[in-house]
Amino acid sequence: MFFQSIETLIAKAQQGNKRAWIKLVKQHESQVYNYCLRMLSNPDDAMDLMQEVFISVFKSLPSFRGESSFNTWVFQIVHRRSVEYYRRRKHFQSLDEVPELTCERSELESNQLVQVEHQQLKTMLNNLPWEQRLVVELKFFQHCTFEEIADQLDISTNTAKSRLYSALGKLKVHLEAVDG
Amino acid sequence: MANLDSLFEQWLEGNVLSDTQLQQLENDPEYHALMSQAQVWQQHSREYKTVPVPIWDRQSTISQLTPRRVFSAAGTWVVVASVLVCSLVFLVMPKQPVSELLDQVAKQTQLLDSQQKQIDQLQKIITAQNELQQQHMYQLTKEAISTGRVERQEDLNSLLSYIKTQRAQDQAYLRIQLNDLAEQVQEQPMAAIAKN
């Protein structure tokens, strides 16, 4: 087993090396899947979106020049694809109107405590409009600065801030409602 | 207020604030509330247990290679072959005058150009063939559809004529039966006919 740096893997994948590509996917799939799961709240949708994301990354791989880190570049694609996925799905159902779904096959069921925590997080995220959910995800789960958020979502820094503050305000209302 | 906003932003970005600055933020009811809510999210982020990715087909993310790659590989081989030939020219005939060598290099370059042109022509031919094939496929599909339509029409016509024949036969049979009945009624004496 030889260790290969990410740059080597990218270069090999760009030349069409399938094994290098699969290694790259394995290195990033967990991060991408968990992002999709938090954003969409449904394991099946998260899997679909993750697959779309990696197909997109593979197609765009020849254009990757290493100007930003591979991870940042991948997540820019993830954001674009997730927005498209959300818009597509919105034609069929509104997230706010649909009751919480429980997936029988979910991995979460293996651990009751984790499931409860994830359920709380899911409810909190579902309580937010899509744009605010994206900002919360980038700020608290991807630990991005406001400049990075603005850059990734193609919005101004002030818009990113106002979306985050609105999301925090909504959480206050939600917590007050939960506490009674 | 602007100062508090900047402090809150710094705190959100993970910068360490002094006790006085933190006190300033906590003393303001609005920012105190925002900080508490941000802390809820931060706690969720810290305690988030990564969900393992279900088993999936990673190979499905690899799309088909485009025909362009084949040509770029061919182009690479042409370049490699030309370099080899040029190297051989320099190694095998080192005593030749520079002008002759330059001529040969020029010839090689011409050869390379002509090969590149051939490759381009081949690419054009393949593209044209693909288009032709697509047109043929389109024609074939159209023909298959129209043949199917004609066959269905013929089937329906034969079914209709069969139904018509059957109906005519049924009507003729009923007519005969009615005639028989009429004859029987006429032949019976009036006393045998029921009176209501």
Automatic annotation (TrEMBL), chain A:
Boundaries of every RNA polymerase sigma-70 region domain copy: 24-90
UniProt GO MF annotations: DNA binding; sigma factor activity
Domain RNA polymerase sigma factor 70 region 4 type: from-to ranges: 119-171
InterPro entries: RNA_pol_sigma-70-like (IPR039425), RNA_pol_sigma-70_dom (IPR014284), RNA_pol_sigma70_r2 (IPR007627), RNA_pol_sigma70_r4_t2 (IPR013249), RNA_pol_sigma_r2 (IPR013325), RNA_pol_sigma_r3/r4-like (IPR013324), WH-like_DNA-bd_sf (IPR036388)
Listed GO biological process terms: DNA-templated transcription initiation
RNA-binding found in the keyword field: no
Keywords: DNA-binding, Sigma factor, Transcription, Transcription regulation
Highest taxon in the source lineage: Bacteria
Coiled coil segments of this chain: none
Segment forming the signal sequence: none
Family statement drawn from the similarity comment of this UniProt entry: Belongs to the sigma-70 factor family. ECF subfamily.
Protein name: Sigma-70 family RNA polymerase sigma factor
Organism from which the protein derives: Pseudoalteromonas arctica
UniProtKB/TrEMBL annotation, chain B:
Transmembrane regions listed in the UniProt entry: 70-93
Coiled-coil zones: 98-132
Record's keyword terms, sorted: Coiled coil, Membrane, Transmembrane, Transmembrane helix
Protein name: Uncharacterized protein
